[in-house]
UniProtKB/TrEMBL annotation:
GO molecular function: FMN binding
Record's signal peptide: 1-21
InterPro entries (UniProt xref): FMN-bd
Domain of life: Bacteria
Protein name as it appears in the record: FMN-binding protein
Keyword line: Signal
Single GO cellular component term: membrane
Residue ranges of every copy of the FMN-binding domain listed in the record: 74-165
Entries under Gene3D superfamilies matching the protein: 3.90.1010.20
Pfam family, one: FMN_bind
Length: 181
């Protein structure tokens, strides 16, 4: 259906361009801009429809991913998303230590990282989580400057949770992350 709609729209735009050209209007730049604007509108409409269709495929529930091993600094990732009415309504991506304390709540870690990178876990974890809720698309989440490693981990793991939500599989995903010494 989507293909027919896109092809019909493209055919209509192409026919409109030929009609405008046949009329011999002197302002061809305006006609070209109008055609380009119409094409852009079609693409935007098509991509928003595709996004809403993809989001509608998510099954309600809470989907969780955990790393099995702590890194050399004593942290590991815990990440979950909650889906309600086919939409991601909550995202909790953070790192925890052996005591279960969250990196985003570690004031000393926050202070040290802000001094070195200009951003700390109390800043970037909420940014990443909020972007996923807002966009509903892990690929649309942008890397947070100063938190590249955590952003990359988020972007690697979020699609796994979305895939689990599409399948309705609430089994915890365990990542056997390799700890380099």
């Amino acid at each position: 259906m989507e293909l027919k709609k896109t092809l019909s729209t493209a055919t209509l735009l192409l026919a409109s361009t030929f009609v405008l050209a046949a009329c011999g209007g002197a302002d061809t730049e305006t006609e070209t801009e109008s055609s380009a604007a119409a094409s852009s509108e079609v693409v935007v409409e098509s991509s928003s429809e595709a996004t809403s269709e993809a989001a509608a495929e998510l099954k309600d529930g809470t989907y969780t991913l955990v790393e099995k091993n702590f890194d050399t600094r004593g942290w590991k990732t815990e990440f979950s998303i909650t889906v309600v009415d086919g939409k991601i309504t909550e995202s909790t991506f953070d790192n925890v230590n052996e005591a279960g304390a969250k990196k985003s709540e570690d004031a000393a870690y926050q202070e040290n990282m802000v001094a070195k990178a200009g951003v700390g876990p109390a800043d970037y974890f909420p940014q990443l989580n909020n972007q996923l809720i807002e966009t509903q698309d892990p690929e649309a989440v942008e890397v947070v400057t100063g938190a590249t490693h955590s952003s990359d981990t988020f972007k690697e793991y979020a699609p796994m949770l979305v895939a689990a939500a599409e399948a309705g599989d609430t089994t915890t995903i365990e990542i056997d992350n390799v700890v380099e010494e």
